[in-house]
Specification:
The chain is mainly beta and 442 residues long. It folds into three domains: 205 residues, no CATH class; 94 residues, Immunoglobulin-like (Sandwich), CATH 2.60.40; 108 residues, Domain of unknown function DUF5300 (Immunoglobulin-like, Sandwich). Helices cover 5% and strands 53% of the residues. It has one helix and 37 strands. A five-stranded mixed β-sheet has the order 14-11-18-19-20, with no helix packed on it. Strands 12, 13, 15, 16 and 17 form a five-stranded antiparallel β-sheet that branches. The longest helix is centred in the N-terminal third of the chain and has 22 residues. The protein starts with a helix and ends with a strand.
């Protein structure tokens, strides 16, 4: 064999050797991951794996169907400050993701900090359901958890397990189908803290059940978050709904507000002008009749309106307009107190500007309103969403749709965690409005 042949032979052997190595290489197995933010004191949390893009998650917001190679990773969770004056907070965790498992990352809250918790689910059997459980509600005591078929109840039943805050029940296999869930005080089945309606646990799909703090977002103290191909909140079957009223009628007179023609007594009697009533219970129903009349005069319907109220919700009704012809605006209220943020809702009952809109804006104390865009643009009756601002000192301005100042500057201070309302009502003349400060404003 000459040198050229020897070299060629060596090259062929090297190629074959490399080819043999490639044919033996395995693609890393993938694992499924989902993430959910169940920390009620944070309006947004950022989530990322190592150097990947940050995903923003609102309360009860999540990510589904993430796929990672089997490995150990560093994951990061961070706050989303409104401006540079608020320090960024970051939390890390580094789980090992194992083949044939799926994972749920739950961003929980403990003593004001975010605590990521990892739930691990092995591959579920094809013919049965599987579930894991986490207790993530800091102010809820230790509980016993029951899962039973609809209508069976828990009399004589054995709990599936007991959990304290941050405790878990490891993956359990159960026959697929419909279930009801109960939470009772640990060791005391007579003290029922939560009883769900019917939900389905399908075969072959890993589910996670997370006892969730509502954080004053509605009427209930807790819910159970069901995670399986998406997320859903399970509320107690007896969860209530509530409503309050802001009377913005142009004449400034008191009004009665009745539900389903119950006028004696009405839901609210003689609701005063521009002063929110307390919350009162209303039926949980898709269709409820609401009637507004002059105080003590149920024979004159100034507003006759159908509205919906859902379990675990609070809402505000604002009505405005001239006597005898009132119009409504409804807003769902989220009463969570958010760390490092003040939240404000703008309202208008200034019906003298209809047709037309009013601009609402907050400037830094002493700032130039002419250089700033509106935070909300509303026609009466109207309500903005709940808007977040850094805590501090501000001036409130209201402008007409021509840019003329209808009110302001009105100096206000807003604290972190505060919930505020700013209401415009008709002013002393056709070009101005009066501003009424509501809720946590002194």
């Amino acid at each position: 064999m000459n040198l050229r042949s020897l070299a060629s032979y060596g090259l062929v052997c090297a190629v074959l050797l490399l080819g043999g190595c490639d044919s033996g290489r395995k693609t890393p197995a993938k694992v499924a991951v989902r993430v959910i933010n169940l920390a009620p004191s944070y309006s947004q949390l950022g989530f990322r794996r190592e150097q990947t893009q940050i995903e923003q998650l609102g309360f009860k917001g999540g990510l589904e169907n993430l796929a990672y190679d089997v490995d150990t990773y560093d994951f990061y969770v961070n706050t989303s400050p409104l401006d540079a004056s608020i320090p960024l907070q970051t939390w890390t965790f580094a789980p090992q993701l194992k083949e044939d498992n799926s994972y749920t990352f739950v961003l929980t809250e403990a003593a004001g900090d975010v605590v990521p918790v990892v739930l691990e689910s092995p591959r579920p059997p094809a013919a049965d359901a599987q579930f894991v459980v986490l207790h993530a509600a800091e102010n809820v005591p230790a509980v016993d958890l029951y899962l039973e078929r609809p209508g069976v109840g828990i009399g004589g039943a054995t709990p599936r397990g007991s959990l304290s805050f941050q405790g878990q029940l490891a993956a359990r296999t159960i026959a697929s189908g419909e279930y009801e869930l109960w939470l009772t005080a640990a060791g005391n089945p007579a003290n029922v803290l939560f009883a769900s309606g019917t939900f389905t646990l399908p075969a072959g799909a890993p589910a996670a059940l997370v006892i969730t703090p509502e954080g004053n977002s509605g009427t209930a103290a807790l819910s159970v978050t069901l995670l399986q191909g998406g997320s859903a909140s399970l509320y107690d079957r007896n969860a209530t709904a509530e409503m309050r009223v802001i009377n913005g009628a142009a004449d400034g007179a008191a009004r009665d507000v009745a539900i389903n023609s119950a006028f004696t007594p009405p839901l609210f009697s003689a609701a005063p002008f521009a002063d929110p009533t307390p919350y009162a219970s209303v039926p949980v129903a898709q269709s409820t009749q609401l009637t507004v009349t002059p105080a003590g005069n149920q024979g004159v319907f100034e507003l006759d309106q159908v509205f919906s109220a859902f379990a675990n919700t609070r809402q505000t009704l604002l009505f405005s307009g001239t006597a005898g012809a009132l119009s409504p605006a409804f807003a769902i209220e989220d009463g969570r107190h958010i760390r490092n943020e003040a939240r404000v809702r703008f309202w208008t009952a200034a019906s003298q500007f209809n047709p037309g809109f009013l601009d609402f804006l907050l400037t830094a104390r002493g700032g130039d309103q002419a250089l700033q865009r509106a935070d909300a643009i509303l026609a009466a009756p109207g309500a903005s969403s709940q808007l977040s601002f850094p805590p501090g000192d501000y001036d409130v301005y209201v402008r007409t749709d021509t840019g003329a100042i209808a009110s302001g500057p009105t100096p206000v201070h807003m604290d972190a965690g505060g919930l505020y309302g700013i209401l415009a009502v008709n002013g002393p003349d056709s070009a101005t409005v009066n501003v009424v400060l509501l809720d946590d404003f002194p």
